[in-house]
Amino acid sequence: MSLEMVPLGRTGTSVSELAFGTWRFGRQTDDGSVEVGAAQAHELLDAYADAGGNFIDTADMYGDGASESYIGEWFASLDREDFVVASKIFWPTRDDANGRGLNRKHLRRQIDSILDRLGTDYVDLLYIHRWDDDTPVEEFMRTLDQFVRDGKVNYLGTSTLEPNAWKVVKANELADKRGYEPFRVAQPRYNAVNREIEGNYLEMCADYDIGVVPWSPLAGGFLTGKYARDETPPPTSRAANDQRFADSYLTAENFDALDVVEAVADEVGASPGQVSLAWLLHHPQVTAPIVGARTVDQLQENVVAADIDLTAGQFERLSAAKRHLSV
Length: 327
Fold this sequence. Notes:
Blueprint: E1 5-7, E2 14-16, E3 19-21, H1 38-50, E4 55-57, H2 66-75, E5 84-89, H3 104-118, E6 123-128, H4 137-149, E7 153-159, H5 165-178, E8 183-187, H6 200-207, E9 211-212, H7 238-241, H8 243-249, H9 252-268, H10 272-282, E10 290-291, H11 296-303, H12 312-320
Helix pairs in contact: 1-2, 1-11, 2-3, 3-4, 4-5, 9-10
């Protein structure tokens, strides 16, 4: 199979319907080993490209910059123009007071570091990795706009953990008033059990023609079906080693939603994880979910989700499995 191309929001750029996230590249585990090293990263990127993928997601802090370096090394034997590359800026990269956030000093330093590691003279999409309430919106929007004018960045995006629709609106309204480049893509958490963006945030994205590229489409592995209600999590699983994750995901409400996912998976002959991805792929407001993988087999299993056809009834059952409750 080959992944299909979709518009990147309301831009003129096309991306594959599944993006590939590289947050595991160069990441050190608690025992000091590297989760995905350079050779394995290149194998994964090869497999993604072979499946028709062109949308690669990274960040300056993934693997302390190793993720971007691995991608840059991989590009050395390829045509970089065949790919749409997204990176992010926000988290600390230095110990000094200006070594984090969206202040102009940090942004200008980091964009050049990002381009150097990627071995390219521009990124297609640059996200602010989180919001910076300590830096005036005017300052970081003007700085980001200059990156676009200088040809270092094609489009701007905003990544978030918690919905912040009014802040994105404030920034885009300022950009419109000043003639700056606006945020054209949003990267929120969104999946069958994390529904916090439903309501104002998704409505804001639709109203401002902002593409939605969700992270954590499998809810940190919960939606793969690896956990069972009222059973002890597998000893090597995330839930067994991260109490906050267990408290957040191993809830009765989430297992009720997972029951629906598993029922639809049985109906279409797919895995729960594939159905969870298929739900996002069928979602009219979603541009391209970001999938991550440690192995080629995992990546290929995720890619199969693009071939799954859900009926309107199945899509609605999954949508209703756990709706966001506005307060």
